[in-house]
Amino acid sequence: MFSFVFVMSHLLALIFFVRLFLPKRYICLNPYVVGIDNLLMRFLSFLRVAFPFDDRILCLFLMIGSLSTRAVLLTQVDGGVVRLGAVALFTFHPSSFIQWLEVEVFQFVLFLVTLWSAYVVLRIWCCRQVFQGFSGGLLVMACSPFSRFRLAVQWGILCVLWTSLLLLLYQNASDITYPLGEASDVVAYFQQLHIVNIFDLRQFPHFIRIIFLSAVGFLNVFNELYTILCAFFSLHLLARLLRMRSIQYFLEGALRLLCGRLPAITFFSVDVSPLVAMIMFSVVDVILNGVLCMSLLGVAHVV
How many beta carbons lie within 10 A of that of residue 212, not counting itself? Predict the structure, then answer.
């Protein structure tokens, strides 16, 4: 139950955040975006009776309220932790609500930067083509204003955001641990090979840790995309079995987006190209993480 509320609170905060950067009146023919915008406008019209402010000011307060709600929930589940994959764990020990809200802001920024990183990966995966379909339009809108920039500029923004986020986490976290580097199996493996345990980042200079964890955060997107593909493909099969046409249509568009330029591969009237995309994401994830680890191993011998 808490997990569902956590996800929904971040999605709500994302809707309010995106609305901050949109003009008061704009034309959109995407039914998904129009549906969400109509609900938001009705809610803002209801609030405007008691709070006669501009839409952007109301959205700003609603975003803060959504993050504050999640901060309250964090106090109930002892969630003062920001996790970066299995490599780094930033632990906070908040003693006031403001400090809990600070932890939640870190988690929301991590969610936002991960979403934008996934957008860049999908742009490359789609061979830099414009996203097609209603699902593609929804993703472009969800990543606004980041999606308005050129790809080269987006790379620069991501580098700055990942580096800044990690610098702030290192500066504000009460305790920093490296679970993967401290795992007994990993320690025994490196001892057996008589090489440096590269996942124990305490032995590296501060700037090396920042660069490595920034790369880890970005590459973790491939694992997230694999998980989303697996979930959407399973839900699509279930919707097809139950003949839920509207959900099936949405999931087909989302799967086509995630499959990029892969052609449809039909097997017994079922498009199995998402399975091929999942394999390709896994292979790319392993290769790039392997290259990153080998690079860090080379740095370890120099440092």
Answer: 22
